[in-house]
Amino acid sequence: MSQPPSPQEKHLNQARTSLQQALSWYTSFRRHWNYPPNLDLQAAVRKDLQTLKAALEKLEQNVIKIATFGLVSRGKSAVVNALLGEKVLQTGPLHGVTQWPRSVRWTPASGKVQIELIDTPGLDEIEGEARAQMAREVAYQADLILFVVASDITRTEYQALCELRESQKPILIVFNKIDLYPEKDRQEIYQQLQTWATGKAGENLSEVLSTDEIVMVAAEPQPVPVRVEWPDGGVTEEWETPPPQIEELKAKILTLLNREGRSLLALNALFQAQAAEANIAKKTVEIRQQEAEALIWQYAKYKALAVAVNPFGILDILGAIIADLALIRALARLYGLPITNYQAGKLWRTIVISSGGLLLGELFSSLIIGVGKSAAAVTSMFENPTALTIYGGAALTQGGIAGYGTYAIGKAAQVYLERGCSWGPMGPSTVIQDILAQIEPNTIIYRLRQELL
Is pLDDT larger for residue 82 or for residue 323? Predict the structure, then answer.
């Protein structure tokens, strides 16, 4: 009898299903129904479709990406080499050996997880927007961030750490080069780092960091003199390089990944899909704006005419609601955004309620005027000229109100369709919310939950 999937496996399966569904929909020629293909739109969303494909491939490969950040000469490359157990990346005393992000694959001895380590240039080497853009792009891809320091945290490092925090990814602070400090100084710096993590002078990172996420290492220890005594009684002094002190960081990473690595992988892929779908929706709404405007006016005119000529008040209300729902579905088809009849009805109710009573007033006015119009219609059957005049005035007024209401519904629906494109039953936003609701309290993801929601 097979065992039920673990929570992490369930999260991974949910994310995989969500991305497969999104990719299937957005790459389908049928998503725009009978509307002709728009070459400008296809070109505009190509990069976002590639993002969806890459996110799904990352899930299928089950590879965790860990990115190292820090200022120049903090030993980021040395930390990567120490984790790998061999010198793959160049290190040295020169100011900033690493000039661009580099990736290397790390398979820990346990073999349970596949890890891609990403080494980055010093954050103070690249100027202005170029630095920020590089950091955003690498952090966007990463599932976990290692922020390497070599002393008490500086103002520049604190600002860089706050910028990385905006990526909403788990962060470990790696206090490197501890071999350069006496034990007393080392502990003082460690305590200062803990102070930064738990709050200092109104500026703190406690929402995403705890003291458990600060690790001390010596990734590339400096050579030390060793006294050598020879059999002939001679004594010499040689320089010997101690092995890296990296086991605590290795254990911390592997414990974290075994406990919540696949959940991190699932959430990161879903956030990438969420952003890609939002971009697709935004570009679609912009490029098809003219067609959408014509569609909204068409429904507004037809609804106004139908309500005006219909003599029965109650049917006016039902017909108006049906027309509004049909408009929402028609806009979704024009944009090629997934929406069901139930979701269209839910969206209509949301728009009516959020309009601050304006559209509710339209329905109420339509009902009152419709009743008067129906009474006038009944009276006019007995050839009362005054009743015919009342009927005509009521019909024009009600038709105008109905047409305006549909136009308002259409314009509001454009905004809601763009913003809510990922909120379907298996949409990324829905699955993200579901996963975060299941997370255990003693995890990094749980501390990030408020920022992720």
Answer: 82
Same-domain check for residues 278 and 292? no
- How crowded is residue 406: how many other Cβ atoms within 10 Å of its Cβ? 27
Residue 332 has pLDDT above 90, yes or no: no
Q: Which residues contact 268 (CB under 8 A, 6 or more apart)?
A: 58, 142, 143, 169
**CATH number, residue 109:** 3.40.50.300
Q: Tell me, yes or no, whether 366 and 432 share the same domain.
A: no
Q: Are 118 and 101 in contact (CB under 8 A)?
A: yes
Identify which of 76-80, 86-90, 93-97, 191-195 has the greatest average pLDDT.
Answer: 76-80
CA–CA distance, 318 with 206 (Å, rounded to integer): 54
Q: 433 and 383, same structural domain? A: no
- Residue 388 confidence (pLDDT): 42
In the block, tokens 């725009």 appear at 32
Angle made by CA atoms 323, 326, 327, in degrees to the nearest 5: 85
Q: Kindly state whether residues 380 and 246 are assigned to the same domain.
A: no
Asked whether residue 34 is assigned to any structural domain, the reply reads yes
| 259 lies in the same domain as 379 | no
What CA–CA distance (Å, rounded) separates 154 from 136? 21
Handedness of CA 179, 182, 187, 188 (dihedral sign): negative
Residue 373 clears pLDDT 50, i.e. is over it: no
Residue 2 belongs to a domain: no
Residue 334's alpha-carbon distances to 36, 95, 286, 321, 427, in angstroms, are 10, 55, 12, 20, 19
Q: Average of pLDDT values for 390-406?
A: 59
Is the Cβ–Cβ distance between 84 and 226 less than 8 Å? Answer: no
Tell me which residue has tokens 């490197």. 176
Question: Residue 374: which domain range?
Answer: 288-419
One domain, residues 138 and 188: yes
Please give the share of the chain, as a percent, with pLDDT higher than 70: 74
Residue range 316-320: mean pLDDT, rounded: 68
Q: Which residues contact 303 (CB under 8 A, 6 or more apart)?
A: 319, 320, 323, 324, 402, 403, 405, 406
Q: Tally the domains of the chain.
A: 2
Q: What is the pLDDT of residue 205?
A: 54
Q: Is 1 a domain residue?
A: no
